[in-house]
Amino acid sequence: MTNTVLHVADVHKSFGGLRALSDVELEVEEGKVHAIIGPNGAGKSTLLNVCIGRIRPDRGHVIFNGETLDRHEPHEINQLGVSRVFQTPEIFPDLTLIENVMIPAFARRDGAFRLNAIMALSGEKEIRDEAEFVLEDIGLSARRHHEAGSLSRGDKRRLELAMCLIQKPKLLLLDEPTAGMARHDTNMTIELLQRIKARGMTKVIIEHDMHVVFSLADKISVLAQGSIIADGTPDEVRGNPKVKEAYLGE
Ligand code: ADP
Ligand code: MG
């Protein structure tokens, strides 16, 4: 029997007169990679923000591991085991890579990020060792003492992924993790995500690059103008005429 980790149930969200999400249903199974694809402005980032508590739906619910998240704050959802990579990297440019990776480990353990966490950074051997390991894993170890602001855009995105991995999330949400990356960086990221997949981490990945989607996804949901117009395995979705039509308008 499969276990549903994330259930988005009948979610609606409008911004003024604009319907960003209507009637959205999504079931993400444990250990699977679930891709959400769709044209620009389809509502993909809004859906991800609803899942992490940054945007409240007008109607409907988000259920994570059986728990309804209606009144949870984003940091509480994070502590329950949900981490996310945003479309624009959110890193600390003046801190070193290793410090950047250590901060989310404190946030997961001690609750909302505390300013004095930075003060504690040097003393925490266990978390520092973990951060070293994660940076090695992600291929940024050689630059661990560099300032994060000095990284290329692609490396900043990988650093943000490292900041999620150190939290050992039950569910990882990625908003276009390869956006702005050159092909070489994209391939490195795919390889990395495949390795994480082998460890059984459940993922929701929003992605524009079809090469990435078909390399990774077990299941695909297609969002267009705020509604899920198709879902299924990559082969099922690839052949769906409604999907081709939605992409023709791009
Ligand atoms: P996608 O990630 O699929 O490109 P988004 O979820 O970012 O799409 O946006 C869906 C629609 O909602 C777009 O028309 C966008 O302009 C609109 N939108 C997103 N966020 C806001 C906001 N905070 N206020 C008003 N409109 C928004
Ligand atoms: Mg988006």
TrEMBL record:
Domain of life: Bacteria
Any single GO CC term annotated in Swiss-Prot or TrEMBL for this entry: plasma membrane
Domain ABC transporter: 6-250
InterPro entries: AAA+_ATPase (IPR003593), ABC_AA/LPS_Transport (IPR051120), ABC_transporter-like_ATP-bd (IPR003439), BCA_ABC_TP_C (IPR032823), P-loop_NTPase (IPR027417)
Sample GO molecular function, one term: ATP binding
Annotated source species: Martelella mediterranea
Sorted UniProt keywords: ATP-binding, Nucleotide-binding, Transport
Keyword ATP-binding recorded: yes
Short name of one Pfam family: ABC_tran
Keyword RNA-binding: no
Protein name as annotated: Amino acid/amide ABC transporter ATP-binding protein 1 (HAAT family)
Cited SUPFAM superfamilies: P-loop containing nucleoside triphosphate hydrolases
